Amino acid sequence: MSGSDIGNIPRSPQLMNPADTVLLVIDVQDRLWPHIHGREVILPRIEFLIDAAQILSVRTIATEQYVKGLGPTVEPIAQKLPLRIEKIAFSAGIEPAVLAELEKPGIRKILLVGIETHVCVMQTALDLLANGFQVYLAVDAVGSRSPMDRATALSRLASSGVQLTTAESAVFEWTKLAGTPTFKAVSVLVKKYPPVIEHPS
Questions:
Q1: Which residues of the chain have pLDDT under 50?
Q2: Which fold has domain 18-192?
């Protein structure tokens, strides 16, 4: 069976693809980041997703929570995402500027990464679910100051209908096929950003 034949076969509506998904990076900011448990493994996973999204033409949006208090987005994410939306509400799911970016034709799925899992990420996820989006969360690309807060939030989100995944799983969903130029570019990223063996939480 050729790649063109595969392209004509319907896929599960649970799977993400570049045309229907937005990567939403939540509040990875200077003054809070040093206090995030496991940040040394979370940051490369976020970078991996951003770089893969660029290769695969997945729309990417970043937010910043109360920049006056929490500072700007950390480097090198700031270099990769020069356009960021500032918010005051913890939830990006009620921020008009974010919702306007999500109201693009065909967008039905949101992949969340960032901090903190139990505050801005969780509230965003629940509000986006209420707004009719399918919400996914890369568990190796979210963090909190407290491992207990992170774990509790992940449990609550899973029971609320958020689909838990990992950065690499999401990227290969977007990629879909092996043996293509896109797959080769993604494979380079996989080697550059090795997967997390065990999250430190």
A1: 1
A2: Rossmann fold (3.40.50)
